[in-house]
Write a structure and sequence with these properties.
Chain lengths: 364, 101
């Protein structure tokens, strides 16, 4: 039973009320059968084991994502003079994922103890999540457009110019991501007495306009953070793939494999979240009839799919390691060079170490 | 592929464990009303034991009135019906009278 001090919990004698309002009514022959659909949905509480499991999950992702993305950054950065435009985009994608991974320890503590980090940290963590949400897919869009320009429009010869453009594009993406993420400042730390009885970090819209604001921010996420970028990506890649199949250029086809893997991974991680959020929005609008069971299922689905999205920040390094042949070669090359340099320093010999020839791109 | 398999297992276990529970998490926290359907019929006096009034807020635009029945069940009342409005006024009046004591 609810013990919320803010709610009016009255165990009073209603005899006087019924006498005043219904004194001429005889209820003795009236059998009241409750409509089970009017039973309130029970608030959901998390078992300790589940809390701990998710905390471990977040720590695990953190431990996998940080070294993985650092390695990716190292491989790209060590090849700075020969960076391609796609390398610049992938480097920025790595930055976004690393940034997201760095806030996972907050989630690990939050899931067990609630939000204990204060209001400023609440807003910043929410901002980082939102920025990662937008920038990840926008960088993928940049790559798809770049591939289209190179393969379909044959702009390979202007590589230096494209790399400059990619730098500017990345700056624009970060700015746009920040602007689109400003609604995340609605998140604040507050004590929730209604259901969870602990401090939480969540969106807190003004009462009278909460539904409108929530709907607006969700539509923005769906359209600008997913649907529109998806249309652009699919358009570019469908044309690009058709062209590649026609020209039979093996190296470019192999490069496309890495990019396609990255895009597919992104879609696998984030599409379920959009689907469950859309379903939740439909339920909130009361467009369809539903019961507590369905609503609880949607709540669980939203939580699970959001975590699937968080998983994305450690997926790309794994993909590069397994799908990206050039990445593996480049990485091993760097390890080898570092080994050679160490031996060189130790022996104090003056002989020069042989350097293998540079390859055009670390990834593609 | 061992790493991916491990990730799948970890995530699968997490999904299984979360099947019966959910926790608010940053921007994903999904506040909402607790009442889906409202009861408008008059509850006979012998069936009514207590009334809980949940104030409106960002989580729920409307005030929610929950009646505790003598059978132990709880149902949501429609705060817009005439008799429930009277009931709320009655409760508020009693509350004020108690505060004066």
């Amino acid at each position: 039973m609810m013990t919320d001090p803010n709610s009016s919990n009255h165990l009073v004698d209603f005899h006087e009320f019924y006498y005043e309002e219904f004194n001429d009514t005889d209820f003795s022959n009236f059998t009241f059968v409750p409509d089970e659909k009017t039973i309130p949905c029970s608030s959901i509480t998390m078992a300790s084991a589940v809390n701990i499991s998710f905390s471990v999950f977040y720590v695990f992702i953190f431990l996998l994502a940080i070294p993985g993305n650092v390695i990716v950054g190292w491989v790209i950065g060590s090849n700075r003079r020969l960076l391609s435009a796609s390398d610049v985009y992938l480097f920025n994608l790595m930055l976004a994922d690393t940034l997201l991974a760095l806030i996972l320890p907050f989630s690990a503590v939050n899931v067990i103890h609630g939000w204990v980090f204060g209001n400023v940290a609440c807003k910043l963590v929410s901002l980082v999540k939102e920025v990662n949400f937008y920038t990840s897919i926008l960088f993928l869009v940049c790559i798809s457009v770049d591939r289209y320009m190179v393969i379909v429009r044959a702009m390979e010869s202007q590589k230096a110019q494209r790399r400059l453009c990619s730098g500017v594009a990345c700056g624009l993406v970060w700015v746009l991501g920040l602007v689109l993420s400003l609604p995340s400042f609605y998140n604040e730390a507050f004590f929730d007495k209604r259901m969870f009885n602990q401090t939480i970090c969540a969106e807190r819209f003004e009462t009278d306009h909460a539904d409108e604001w929530r709907l607006a921010t969700r539509i923005m996420r769906h359209v600008l953070g997913f649907a529109l970028p998806l249309v652009v990506m699919l358009s570019c890649y469908s044309v690009t793939v058709v062209r590649l199949l026609r020209t039979r250029c093996f190296q470019k086809q192999r490069a496309m494999k890495v990019i396609v893997a990255v895009v597919v991974a992104f879609l696998v991680c984030w599409t379920p979240f959009h689907v469950s959020t859309i379903i939740d929005t439909i339920l909130r609008a009361k467009v369809v009839q539903f019961g507590c069971t369905m609503r609880t299922s949607v709540e669980v689905a939203m939580f699970a799919t959001q975590n699937l999205g968080l998983l994305h920040c450690c997926v790309n390094p794994v993909l590069y390691a397994f799908v990206g042949e050039k990445f593996r070669r480049r990485f091993l090359q760097l390890l080898h060079r570092k080994g050679v340099l160490e031996r060189f320093s130790l022996s104090k010999s003056s002989k020069s170490s042989s350097l293998t020839s540079e390859v055009p791109s670390s990834f593609l | 592929m061992n790493v991916l398999l491990m990730l799948s297992v970890v995530f699968g276990v997490s999904i299984t464990l979360v099947a019966g529970a959910v926790q608010p998490l940053g921007a994903g926290y999904n506040s909402r009303c607790v009442c889906l359907k409202l009861e408008s019929r008059v509850i006979p006096q012998d069936n009514l034991r207590r009334v809980v009034i949940l104030p409106r807020g960002p989580h729920c635009k409307t005030t929610e009135v929950i009646a505790g029945l003598t059978s132990g069940e709880r149902i949501c009342l429609n705060p817009r019906t005439h008799w429930v409005k009277k009931l709320i006024m009655f409760i508020e009046k009693k509350k004020q009278e108690n505060n004066k004591l």
